[in-house]
Amino acid sequence: MDAHLKETKIDGGLAYDGYFLKVHKDRVTLPDGKPTGREYIKHPGAVVIIPVLDDGRVLLERQFRYPLDRVFIELPAGKKDAGETALEGAKRELEEETGYTASDWQFVCTIHNAIAYSDEHLDIFLARGLTAGPPKLDEGEFVETMAVSVEQMLDWVRSGEITDVKTMIGAFWLEKILAGAWQPG
């Protein structure tokens, strides 16, 4: 159906094999038959958690992000480990980063956050029935956790205090879910 838009790989392969990311460099044929190059990042996939406390507040994190040299406000998230399902990864990441576990998990959606240069996708989950516990941060991971109202989170999106795309999408989904306009999954 979309053959008139498809690009076809001629050759290529791994250009950089990093600890976390793998950069590929391929030659492709464009729909008009002309060759060109494509560079892209292979990513193992990640999960995002929208953790909602019984009082309606949302757990957010503050974390320094080196590429942009600043602290960001984000929903808890992290990459999936090899062989791990998205839900298993979400449960692990929530507990590692915040110390919380959840009794109610709902898949919300999958997003592709960097389609021009990466195959990364993030599976977003809504987590409720939260129980507090101690965080289990990875070595070298430094995160502050805070609980805020949905209104505060949306105000931070509107004001530009929250610019992280996964958190913005999670906030918009949560607003729609709480209003009864959208259903998870």
Defining traits:
globular; alpha+beta; four-stranded mixed sheet; 20% helix; 185 residues; 2 domains; three-stranded antiparallel sheet; 40% strand; Nucleoside Triphosphate Pyrophosphohydrolase
Write a structural description:
This protein is an alpha+beta fold and 185 residues long. The chain folds into two domains: 8-42, no CATH class; 46-178, Nucleoside Triphosphate Pyrophosphohydrolase (Alpha-Beta Complex), CATH 3.90.79. Helix content is 20%, strand content 40%. It contains three helices and ten strands, in the order βββββββαβββαα. The chain has a four-stranded mixed sheet with strand order 7-4-9-8, with helices on both faces.
Main sheet record: 4 strands, mixed
Distance between the amino and carboxyl termini: 26 Å
Q: Biggest sheet, strands in spatial order? A: 7-4-9-8
Average of the residue pLDDT scores: 96
Domain module count = 2
The CATH superfamily of the largest domain is identified as: Nucleoside Triphosphate Pyrophosphohydrolase
Q: Count of DSSP helices?
A: 3
| CATH level 3 topology of the largest domain | Nucleoside Triphosphate Pyrophosphohydrolase
Which structural category do the helix and sheet elements fall into?
alpha+beta
